[in-house]
Specification:
CATH class: Alpha Beta
Distance between the termini: 45 Å
Shape: elongated
CATH architecture: Alpha-Beta Complex
Number of domains: 1
Order of helices and strands: HEEHEHH
Number of helices: 4
Radius of gyration: 18 Å
Structural class: alpha+beta
Length: 117
């Protein structure tokens, strides 16, 4: 755990003021919806840029423990939102699943998404 903590600390320090990419791939393969067995694919890329973090801000974020279990080492929907100065792309992609693109794939395959009007 200490090693992970040190690696994350170095990652956040390196990310100060820089943009990071969040990339997700979605694949939908439904044999019943498409007799040819066609798989539909989407690649979603989101750019997230943090403000320049001070050593104190990094230390306080790490001490919060919010980073635990997060693939990128931060939760954009949590405390780390205060560090985000720019986001281009899908917010839900950074959280974990690009919802708009997933719903579009399902709709394209003939499935109505309950969340859509």
């Amino acid at each position: 755990m200490l090693r992970l903590f040190l690696v994350l600390n170095a990652r956040l320090a390196h990310q100060r003021g820089r943009a990071a990419l969040s990339v997700a791939g979605i694949a939908l393969g439904i044999a019943l919806a498409d007799p040819r067995g066609v798989t539909r694919l989407r690649l979603v890329t989101t750019v997230v840029a943090f403000k320049r973090l001070t050593a104190d801000e990094i230390d306080r974020y790490l001490a919060s423990g919010e980073w635990r279990g997060k693939a990128g080492g931060y939760a954009i929907q949590g405390r780390a939102a205060a560090f985000v100065r720019f986001l281009s792309g899908s917010y839900s992609n950074v959280v974990g699943l690009p919802l708009y693109e997933t719903a579009a794939l399902l709709e394209g395959a003939g499935y109505r998404c309950a969340a859509l009007p």
